[in-house]
């Protein structure tokens, strides 16, 4: 089965440091991975998409990598701020789906302390 | 542009009762999704509509869950009868088209507690 695995333990870091979240997937590589942010009591919000032929993608203080050999994506937040505290979800396209069906990881909660 | 609207935001019911959730997607979005998110887990797709047709309902417990999207706009998700394990947040999302790479926009969700 296709799975997305994220570290279920919360990540606690100091403001100003770089946060690195890990996402591992099983079976064949998806055409792309997405990262979403979810705040308590709210729905997920799309952050970034990285395709299998892209090694790295950046958006402001965010950086995502995609390693098809390791079957892993890393999500980095540089110069982290308390406002970055949230749960971050790694998402893959389901198999050969042409309907855009997504499979979500369980998410990793990031806590940035001032 | 207005986001995805959902109601109610919270619902508490007894087991074996019925409940319905409503979703209004972003205007013009053809694809609508219902997800179930159990505490500590990621969202799980229950059903996907393209306009008013069902594209994927493989993970919908059809003996108790039903959904419809009349006229290809609003949608309702119903649970009848509810079980304790149905306690979760029910998220509605929409996207402008169906397919690979399209961004999904989520509503705030409805938190259901079944006692």
Description:
The complex is a heterodimer of chains A (114) and B (115). Chain A contains no helices and eleven strands. Chain A has strands at 4-6, 11-14, 19-25, 32-38, 45-51, 56-59, 62-67, 72-77, 86-93, 102-104, 108-113. Chain A starts with a strand and ends with a strand. Chain B has strands at 5-7, 10-13, 19-24, 31-37, 44-50, 53-56, 65-68, 75-79, 88-95, 105-106, 110-114. In chain B, the strands form two sheets. In chain B, strands 2, 4, 5, 6, 9, 10 and 11 form a seven-stranded mixed beta sheet that branches. Chain B has a four-stranded antiparallel beta sheet with strand order 1-3-8-7, with no helix packed on it. In chain B, strand 4 (31-37) and strand 5 form a beta hairpin. The A-B interface holds A 4, 8, 31-32, 41-46, 49, 51, 89, 91, 93, 97-102, 104-107 and B 4, 31, 40-45, 48, 50, 55-56, 91, 93, 95, 98-109.
Task: Give me some keywords for this one.
heterodimer; A: six-stranded mixed beta sheet; five-stranded antiparallel beta sheet; B: 115 residues; mainly beta; seven-stranded mixed beta sheet; four-stranded antiparallel beta sheet
Short description:
Chain A has 114 residues and is mainly beta. In chain A, 0% of the residues lie in helices and 54% in strands.
Note poorly predicted spans of chain A: none
Overall SS class of chain A? mainly beta
Measured by residues with Cβ under 8 Å of the partner chain's Cβ, the largest interface is: A-B, 25 and 27 residues
Largest sheet of chain B: 7 strands, mixed
Shape of chain B: globular
What overall form of chain A do the CA principal axes indicate?
globular
Global structural class of chain B:
mainly beta
Oligomer: heterodimer
Number of β-strand runs of chain A: 11
Helix proportion of chain B: under 10%
Our measurement of the CA-to-CA distance between the termini of chain B, rounded to an integer number of angstroms, reads 37 Å
**Amount of helix of chain A:** under 10%
């Amino acid at each position: 089965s296709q799975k997305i695995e994220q570290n279920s333990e919360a990540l606690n870091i100091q403001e100003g440091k770089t946060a690195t979240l890990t996402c591992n997937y099983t079976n064949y590589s998806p055409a792309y991975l997405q990262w979403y942010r979810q705040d308590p009591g709210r729905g997920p919000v799309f952050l970034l998409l990285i395709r299998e032929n892209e090694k790295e993608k950046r958006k402001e203080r965010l950086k995502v990598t995609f390693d098809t050999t390791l079957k892993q994506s890393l999500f980095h937040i540089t110069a982290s701020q308390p406002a970055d505290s949230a749960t971050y979800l790694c998402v893959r396209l389901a198999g050969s789906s042409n309907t855009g069906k997504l499979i979500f990881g369980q998410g990793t909660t990031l806590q940035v302390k001032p | 542009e207005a986001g995805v609207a959902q109601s109610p935001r919270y619902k508490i019911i007894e087991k074996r009762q019925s409940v319905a959730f409503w979703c209004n997607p972003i205007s013009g979005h053809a694809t609508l999704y219902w997800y179930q998110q159990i505490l500590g887990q990621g969202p799980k797709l229950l059903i996907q509509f393209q306009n008013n047709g069902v594209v994927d309902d493989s993970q919908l417990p059809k003996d108790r869950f039903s959904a419809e999207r009349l006229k290809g706009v609003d949608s309702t998700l119903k649970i009848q009868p509810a079980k304790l394990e149905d306690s979760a947040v029910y998220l509605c999302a929409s996207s402008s088209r169906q397919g690979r790479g399209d961004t999904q926009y989520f509503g705030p969700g409805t938190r259901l507690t079944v006692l």
